[in-house]
């Protein structure tokens, strides 16, 4: 979700759901006008119909489409391949005072894979349900809607005769869903980026089902936690304390209660989704394999579970570490853990965009 941007003295990194389209009073439009709602929807559908799903996205078709959009509003554009076959499209709306730091509107063209048989409509059909107004397409939220909103906002502003003081750039990068190393990362460290004199970047945020949008200026940090319990193996018919599965289940119950307490704050409207710590189970591993599945009359000696945790900048990471140590993987229940802390922000020396820190307690 995050775009790595090289920090400079004049770069303010801003993660934001940028929906300028809806903040501009709509000009009166005649039917058939390129700004009419049906034309806007049709262009959005065209973008959605380009299959840019990882691992085999059609980057070039997406780039061609975006360049055709820039052409249609008479804006200069270029397709830059920092890595062969992975074009980043850069569109330029020159400002009246080009010496001022510019505005960069960022989005990515690739989308995560889809399983077509689980969809009501094919994921790249961009089917529009006339009764609900919903469009069914992979990437409609993450984040082709935002890319098109940038373009449509510029289209409307240009049509109204507005000219920005600062130059505005629109960047459409490839490969964000697989790390962004060949697109946004190379762009952020390039002379091309330096020459843009970027003052602020608007990136992706959360989709909104209504007409109000929240701006965000930070990113949650992912922690990937694996907890493991060990215990004496025993017969499936026997009740005894401290089996691995029993100890792991106690931890899972504790984690589940914590998750519910965080989620309750969101449900009660006291916190936004990005302001609480989210915890979701990623895997559960236990059991003694047999040729037909698992041995059913044996309590296993090891059990393990993995969790994806997201921590907002406002949370206290030390108290969460304590919680992991004392409640989720306590020594008293024969438990160990490993937590991989992933940092999405570039350190100031700039040579690593994702810094990994690992904490573990082994027996
Ligand atoms: Zn995204």
Automatic annotation (TrEMBL):
Protein residues bound to Zn(2+) 1: 108, 142, 204
GO BP annotations, alphabetical order: amino acid metabolic process
UniProt keyword Ribonucleoprotein, yes or no: no
Keywords: Cytoplasm, Hydrolase, Metal-binding, Signal, Zinc
Domain Peptidase M20 dimerisation: residue ranges: 218-327
Keyword Zinc part of the UniProt annotation: yes
GO terms of molecular function: aminoacylase activity; metal ion binding
Main location: cytoplasm
Localization of this protein: Cytoplasm
Cofactor note (record): Binds 2 Zn(2+) ions per subunit.
EC number: 3.5.1.14
Gene3D superfamilies per the UniProt record, alphabetical: 3.30.70.360, Zn peptidases
Domain of life assignment: Eukaryota
One GO term describing the cellular component: cytoplasm
Family annotation (InterPro entries): Aminoacylase-1_M20A (IPR052083), ArgE/DapE_CS (IPR001261), Bact_exopeptidase_dim_dom (IPR036264), N-acyl_aa_amidohydrolase (IPR010159), Peptidase_M20 (IPR002933), Peptidase_M20_dimer (IPR011650)
Annotated active site: 110, 176 (proton acceptor)
Pfam families, per database record: M20_dimer, Peptidase_M20
Binding of Zn(2+) 2, residues: 142, 177
UniProt cross-references to SUPFAM superfamilies, sorted A to Z: Bacterial exopeptidase dimerisation domain (SSF55031), Zn-dependent exopeptidases (SSF53187)
Entry similarity comment: Belongs to the peptidase M20A family.
Record's protein name: N-acyl-aliphatic-L-amino acid amidohydrolase
Annotated organism of origin: Linum tenue
